[in-house]
Amino acid sequence: MPRAKAKCTTCGKPVVQAYRPFCSKRCADVDLSRWLGGSYAIPAVEPPDEWDMAAAIREQDTDPGKLH
Ligand SMILES: [Zn+2]
């Protein structure tokens, strides 16, 4: 039943519950910056489909032909 103690994915020390899956905020930050600056670079932000839909619906609602 006892599970193997999780180890910090950054430095290998025992994980601290508050910072899972890391041992400290420092290690969490290290991993995050590695994530953001590394191979998983995020491209320029594009509006998601939902945004386009909301804009289209708003255009329909303000259609002058519907106001009369
Ligand atoms: Zn660590």
UniProtKB/TrEMBL annotation:
Which organism's genome codes for this protein? Pyruvatibacter mobilis
Which family does the record assign? Belongs to the DNA gyrase inhibitor YacG family.
Output the Gene3D superfamilies linked to this UniProt entry.
Erythroid Transcription Factor GATA-1, subunit A
Q: Which GO terms describe its molecular function?
A: DNA topoisomerase type II (double strand cut, ATP-hydrolyzing) inhibitor activity; zinc ion binding
Subunit composition and interactions: Interacts with GyrB.
Record's keyword annotation contains Cell cycle: no
Q: Which cofactor does it need?
A: Zn(2+)
Tell me which InterPro entries the record gives: DNA_gyrase_inhibitor_YacG, Znf_NHR/GATA
Cofactor: how bound: Binds 1 zinc ion.
Entry keyword annotation includes Metal-binding: yes
What keywords would UniProt list here? Answer: Metal-binding, Zinc
Q: Which residues of this UniProt protein bind Zn(2+)?
A: 8, 11, 23, 27
Q: Which GO terms describe its biological process?
A: regulation of DNA-templated transcription
Top-rank taxon of the source lineage equals Bacteria
Gene symbol of the encoding locus: yacG
Q: Which SUPFAM superfamilies does the record cross-reference, listed alphabetically?
A: Glucocorticoid receptor-like (DNA-binding domain) (SSF57716)
Biological function? Inhibits all the catalytic activities of DNA gyrase by preventing its interaction with DNA. Acts by binding directly to the C-terminal domain of GyrB, which probably disrupts DNA binding by the gyrase.
Q: Output this protein's name.
A: DNA gyrase inhibitor YacG
